[in-house]
Design goal:
Number of helices: 3
Strand content: 25-35%
Largest sheet: 5 strands, antiparallel
Structural class: alpha+beta
Helix content: 10-25%
Length: 198
């Protein structure tokens, strides 16, 4: 038991948790996992009430929630192109360059969050948010997206249609520090109405 000054400890309040929905996001870090042919992307919310929530979780607990993985394997290149279309469409003048992945940092896009069940270590079933789709920022503002139904575990299958195998899921732990191999600036840029081209 800790025997410190409990009166100096700030009590925790209620935590507002994002729900499955569409959100405007900013890319905060990118890591190329070449061996498995995917980009692992750290992103954060740009608008209230969740602005900076992913970074805040990282600062408090040392792991990044709701990582986005986008495969560029031959069989998934159409889906990767959809990701690039969302990023390029949300950032006028930006064109993806596979030789400069860090240029993705600070770019906005829309993310559609869904939920999926996963097996907890104690044998119970938990739910977690996952990036189920990417859209342009304008599509999010227009409501031009569909939130998927809860993806339930079935017959002991621990796979995820959104983020890979949940048996190997370890959120945000690919790097012990933020910078690590992700590079980039973890700060969320201020976007004002002059930055929005629509």
């Amino acid at each position: 038991m800790w025997h410190g000054d409990w009166k100096s400890v700030q009590p925790s309040g209620d935590y507002a948790r994002p729900e499955p929905d569409g959100y405007v996001a900013v890319i905060c870090g990118v890591q190329d996992v070449e061996k498995k042919e995917y980009l692992e992307i750290r992103w954060d919310f740009t608008e209230e009430p969740f602005r900076g929530a992913n970074r805040s979780t990282f600062d408090r607990f040392g792991w990044w929630p709701t990582l986005m993985r986008r495969s560029y394997k031959e069989s998934a290149r159409g889906m990767f192109r959809a990701f690039l279309t969302a990023v390029e469409g949300s950032n006028p003048g930006y064109e993806f360059d596979s030789h400069n992945l860090q240029a993705l940092n600070g770019k906005r896009l829309g993310v559609v969050l869904g939920e999926e069940e996963y097996p907890k270590k104690d044998g119970s079933i938990g739910k977690r948010l996952v990036v189920s789709a990417v859209k342009t920022v304008q599509q999010i503002y227009d409501g031009d997206f569909k939130v998927p139904a809860l993806k339930k575990l079935s017959g002991g299958s621990y796979g995820s249609t959104y983020g890979g195998s949940s048996a190997s899921y370890n959120p945000g732990s690919a790097s012990g520090s933020y910078a690590g191999s992700y590079g980039g600036n973890p700060e969320i840029p201020d976007f004002n109405s002059e930055d929005v081209p629509f």
